[in-house]
Amino acid sequence: MQTLLFIEDDQDIRAALRLALEDEGYKVVEAADGNSGLVAFETESVDLVLLDLRLPDMSGFDVCRELRNKSLVPIIMVTAQTDTHDLVAGLEAGADDYVTKPVIAKELAARIRAALRRTTLLSASATELDRFIVRDVEMRSDQGIVLKGGVELPLTKTEYRLLHIFMEHANKVLSRDQLLELVWGYEYLGDSRLVDAHIRRLRVKIEDSPDDPKIIATVRGMGYRLLTA
To answer: Fewest Cβ atoms closer than 10 Å to its Cβ: which of 91, 193, 203, 215?
Structure first.
């Protein structure tokens, strides 16, 4: 049974979603604030974190960054529908995906399944023997790592999956909708801001000058392309 950690200060939301997710076959560990959530993460074997960004004791962004500093576990943030700034900031803090309040249980379950499936796909790709090299960036799929200048990069599972898709489709333009489907597994649930925020994060890690990218280029009006030369 896979374990979800739900960090949310609203007891009614926690209770309702816990019941819905338990019906989906998950074990749900609850935490009412950031500090207790971080403690629970250390004491439980957690497969995925659901994180509210508005917590009573500390910023959800800080919780996200602290989790990301110690783990590649998938993080789905919970945010108000109108908080575009919070959405982008949460993704750039290290979250893999998001849901908006009021949370629809079936949509949340679909996003959880997709996030856990990406983790499974990453583990499977680590057994493949293919390697990709673009400039000083090397992806070793047999080891499940990415190196830049010989130094391993701390990529999240979603960033790794995103880069792997670009490497597999080198020099081809990929639209945001294609990336949502290939990386997140969404055909209609996704949001192009997911793609843009993760590409910004990935560029910070693989580009010499993220503001003047030479590896992942923006193709105006079409999407993105990984350049091999």
So the answer is: 193
- CATH class for the region spanning 3-121: alpha beta
Count CB-CB contacts under 10 A for residue 212: 8
CA distances from 18 to 5, 105, 115, 162, 173 (A): 10, 10, 18, 30, 41
**Which residues lie across from 7 on neighbouring strands?**
31, 51
How far apart, in whole angstroms, are the C-alpha atoms of residue 218 and residue 174?
10
- 170-174-177 Cα angle (round to 5): 150
Class of domain 127-226 as given by CATH: mainly alpha
Q: How far apart are CA 137 and CA 115, in angstroms?
A: 25
pTM: 0.79
